[in-house]
Structure prediction request, 344 residues.
Amino acid sequence: MQTINHVRGTRQGLQVVCWGLIWMIFPLMAGDPGMLPGLISRGAMFAAGCALLVAINVWVLCPYLYFRRAYGWYALACIALLVVAGIVTRVLEPPPVPPPDMPAGPPIRRPAYFPLLIFPPYLMSLIGSTIVEVTFFVIEREREAITLRSEKLETEMRFMRWQTNPHFLFNALNNIYALSLMKSDAAPSHILRLSDMLRYMLYEGNGERVLLSREVAYLKNYLDFQQLKSREGFNVQADIGPVPGDPYIAPMLLIPFVENAFKHSHIESRAGSWIRISLRIEGTQLQFEVANHKPEVPYVQDAQAGIGLTNVRRLLAYSYPGRHQLEVSPAADTFTIRLTLDLA
Prediction:
């Protein structure tokens, strides 16, 4: 904010100086060189008047009237400024000085339309400085709006990453508790896995990018905990290839597709249900596919869990604009998603 105010103050100060210089130099360039002393005094008077008028406009009238949409009061104030400036100029301007080579004669009189010659410098300075201020005001507001939209979108994306399935977490804790009651040797290792998942969610998952190997580890741990729900295990096949080079990826990006597969496949209570997961890296392209059996009657295991495909699309658009392709292929008895990411 201090930087913005400094830039704005510098711009407004330059406006005051520039408009004053314009009406100091213009009479000198357009006038008769033989009347230089008179032109200098007249230019200095107009320069001081324009600089003062612009200063009042950019530091008082624009911020306190125009930008607050008090357009009527702003117009009245501008008219009053012009009238006062014209009267003061009419009173203070010295009489015309004749050229040295001009023969003696009656004093030079100002033309009857002289008052009309006073206003153009002030009017042009007032209008010009207002246009500059309004232009930069619009640019600043647009920049602020873009920043706010970006911050809001980033906050929404982080919130969506936190919306992991609470149903899964409760089941994981219950399964570990059951293993501990049975004094199973597998209980400590599952506690460590759950601890690693929570660490990933709370710390690593809060950043913009994580190593793909960490996302894959979270995915594998999730699948292991899901298999604990059944003694025989579910019909889940995960073909997850190696991660050459271990590139970076947006955190918590792949797990929503797997969560949705478990949520909609009815795999916990139907023997014929199945889930297929495939992950491959080809060059800088990540190929990720999740397919699941779809029961005849639509089924949702936990209606409040997961973040949904709509939000996943938004997350992809935010993290990989123009660098992803998501294909959703619903069929009579299957549901398949294919995600291609450019990890370069």
Notes: DSSP finds nine helices and seven strands in the chain. The two ends are 35 Å apart (CA to CA).
